[in-house]
Amino acid sequence: MLWPSVMFDQGSLDLWPGYIGPFLRRPDGRADDNDSPAPMEVLTGSFGLIPSWSKDSKFAKHTYNARSETVAEKPSFRHAWRHAQRCIIPAVAIYESDWRSGKVVATRLVREDGELLGIAGLWEQWRDPATDQVLHSYTMLTVNADDHDFMKAYHKPQDEKRMVVILPKGLVCGLVDGGSCAERSVHEPVPGRSVDRVHVMGFTWSRAEGGVVLAVSGSLLQVL
């Protein structure tokens, strides 16, 4: 998978809702004046989308996921969706709760080929009314996973199964550039064979809203 060559120097970290982490977008969320794609750029922002009308940044703790089925109507996300503010969230891994044993087991999910996950998302820009400072933020798009051969093992037995949209290699650029392929990609789950899992002993969800966390790499990203 190819990524922009921008160093994210915060180091490897676990990214909880409300933390600052990297995401990729086209400048201003669109192509340049010549209709050719502008170079992708890496920005940092709050993990959890903060809509422009929010009074404070704490809103991010509740908006790190956006359901693809309703994102166009939800007040928190519809502005970013209607303005095609799509982004890619790079992650070494995601953590989910495995309930197959009857007890919650924290599980680290990674790509089988060892490359970064490219998670489909939306970004937004928010201005702090107290300081006038501009803060970027982003959310991960999710889809139903009730029938997914791999991800249906996660979340509580009585709950709907959900998963983030992990993009196939060829759609990393296509998502942010728009078109029918991009629209389709945010509603389709990644094939189960593309993801591998490792149980994480001693890991707890006490600091996460809903038990969602990303592992972010501080390594140099490859030129796109």
From TrEMBL:
Pfam families reported for this sequence: SRAP
Uppermost EC category: hydrolase
Span of the signal peptide: none
Gene3D superfamilies: SOS response associated peptidase-like
Molecular function, one GO term: peptidase activity
Annotated EC: 3.4.-.-
Keywords associated with the record: Covalent protein-DNA linkage, DNA damage, DNA-binding, Hydrolase, Lyase, Plasmid, Protease
InterPro entries on file: SRAP, SRAP-like
GO BP terms: protein-DNA covalent cross-linking repair; proteolysis
Superkingdom, taxonomy of origin: Bacteria
Family to which the UniProt record says this protein belongs: Belongs to the SOS response-associated peptidase family.
Protein name per the record: Abasic site processing protein
Organism from which the protein derives: Pseudomonas syringae
